[in-house]
Amino acid sequence: MGDMLRLAVGVMGNAASMLLYAAPMLTFSRVIKKKNTEGFSCVPYVLALFNCCLYTWYGLPVVSYRWENFPVVTINGIGILLEISFILIYFWFSSPKGKKEVANMVVPIILICVATGIISAFVFHDHRRRKVFVGSIGLVASVAMYASPLVVVRQVIKTKSVEFMPFYLSFFSFLASCLWMAYGLLSHDLFLASPNLAGTPLCILQLILYCKYRKNPIKDLEPKKWPDLEYNDEKIKQEFPLDEIKESKLIVTENLSTKT
């Protein structure tokens, strides 16, 4: 009964995490359409890739006992494919400086993951020690991934607007954190439960802020400082009609040309 419950929670956790990992598709479809990253950060996707790589390895039979953590392998394997796709799209459409920044983040992460895999496979000779070693590094990666939205939380508190923090991202994060925390507790695996014990309160904070500021209008429009592109386009268009801005710029340009 306990194993069936754990498997059921793992399947639900997979579904919630799949929605969470797939959510940035809206952002990157916009990037492809505009052929411009518009200055948003790639850090959350790099940290997510780091987390997915480590926990995929953690769930494989080399580290875990047989396939006891099969749900962890499946969702993090899918996460690796999605995050690599997002990072490649970002890399392709970013500026030369942005490409350099992405490379400076991705290369060390790949090296750490490779080193972790080699050390855990050849230095440690039992599953318990391998899980402790890989799980400890994975714990750091997970906490870093869950802490990355704190930049957005700070921006929401500062502007008193949730345009920087879409509801569905916060909700899916909360759902995935709760389910994987339950899975880790049912498995008696602190390396799966602990990151979500830290992530769940952060997700609750995001939901509370959303409920508090969701009706507030946009106060400041600073596109270059937005941490992501997943904001409400319709509200922005209502607040700042682009056609009017273009017309005003055209009038100013014509006046300047006549004066010269």
Question: Layout of SSEs?
Answer:
Blueprint: H1 2-22, H2 25-34, H3 43-59, H4 70-93, H5 96-122, H6 127-147, H7 150-159, H8 167-186, H9 190-213, H10 233-239, H11 242-259
Features of this protein?
single chain; 260 residues; mainly alpha; 11 helices; disordered C terminus; repeat; transmembrane helix; Bidirectional sugar transporter SWEET; membrane; sugar transport
Distance between the ends: 84 Å
- How many domain regions? 1
User: Helix proportion of residues, in percent?
Assistant: over 70%
| Helix run count | 11
Helix and strand composition category: mainly alpha
Give the SSE order as H and E letters: HHHHHHHHHHH
Report the strand count.
0
Overall radius of gyration = 22 Å
Shape: globular
Low-confidence stretches: 220-237, 242-260
Largest sheet: none
Structure explained in plain terms:
This protein is mainly α. The chain has one domain (1-214). The chain is built from eleven helices and no strands. GO terms for molecular function: sugar transmembrane transporter activity. It is found in: Cell membrane; Endomembrane system. One of its GO terms (cellular component) is membrane. Belongs to the SWEET sugar transporter family.
